[in-house]
Design brief:
alpha/beta, eight-stranded mixed β-sheet, 12 helices, 8 strands, 15% strand, elongated
């Protein structure tokens, strides 16, 4: 998995590896090409200039600092409730399956298919559930998604299941009716958790870079996102965009999707991520 992680970052690391021996101007160009953005590039360069030592080591330190945002602490009675949302095509359902597979190694997991819009959405998630060897509450197209979530959490409580993963339908952040459904799902979860889901995760396609910030802002305002998963990280050279994305939203990145397989997800660690960028 470590090798796969490094391979997934290879496009981004091709840029960052050029910082060795580079001038400040060259580092600025590298950061901008990696989609770090003008604001955070300027901040980093200012701190590099103030330090006056090994540029690469200072650069690494500043990147780690920018990526070190507190992760939500989960200290609740089981089941832990995790809701996953995202725009169409962001890899949301595959990410839910990867999380289920990751968690089931040490816990009992159940999936809620709250995607009641897409044809065969339930069947697709059911296939993933079998691969991950976890339980699932399926749904029918047109069914009340919030009711599916309520039934799933109730079943988890009755059967002492450790984690509930809620797979919602992909939706554009500009569709008011679809965002209203997410609010309804979140409201149902508050019957079990007054503060809402323990983890309220948004999946973001890493290839979009900073273009994803606006959509993420709207999801956060509407349903209280408290963590991010960057998907398809293996296909992008815009690895630096992770900095403006999580800092503009003040949200931590929890995991990275690094491939299409069910095992291709890694917990995000700022130090390990930055070190891999420079290898």
């Amino acid at each position: 998995m470590l090798n796969k992680f490094k391979q997934a970052l290879s496009k981004a690391s091709q840029l960052f590896s050029r910082t060795k021996g580079a001038s400040t101007n060259e580092i600025e160009d590298i950061l901008l090409r990696a989609d770090v953005g003008i604001k955070y590039t300027d901040e980093i360069l200012q701190r590099i200039g103030e330090d006056g030592v090994d540029l690469v080591e200072v650069l690494k330190r500043e990147l780690v600092n920018l990526l070190s945002i507190d992760v939500p602490k989960i200290d609740v009675e089981k089941p832990v409730i995790i809701m996953v949302s995202g725009v169409n095509g962001s890899g949301k359902t595959t990410t839910v399956a990867k999380l289920a597979n990751l968690y089931q190694r040490s816990e009992r997991v159940i999936l809620a298919c709250a995607d009641t819009y897409r044809d065969a959405a339930s069947e697709q998630l059911e296939i993933w559930a079998r691969r991950a060897n976890v339980e699932i509450v399926t749904s029918q197209k047109g069914q009340d998604a919030a009711a599916v979530v309520f039934d799933t959490i109730s079943r988890a409580q009755a059967k002492s299941i450790d984690r509930v993963l809620v797979d919602t339908a992909g939706r554009l952040h500009t569709r008011a009716d679809l965002m209203a459904e997410l609010r309804k799902i979140r409201k149902v979860i508050t019957k079990f958790r007054p503060e809402g889901p323990d983890l309220n995760i948004l999946t973001i396609d890493a290839n979009l870079g900073q273009n994803s910030i606006q959509q993420a802002c709207i999801f956060t305002e509407e349903i209280g996102i408290n963590g991010l998963i960057l998907t398809k990280f293996d296909g992008t050279s815009k690895g630096g965009a992770i900095i403006p994305i999580c800092n503009e939203l003040d949200l931590p990145v929890l995991y990275l999707g690094i491939g299409e397989g069910i095992d291709d997800i890694v917990e995000f660690d700022p130090t390990a991520f930055v070190e891999a960028l420079f290898e």
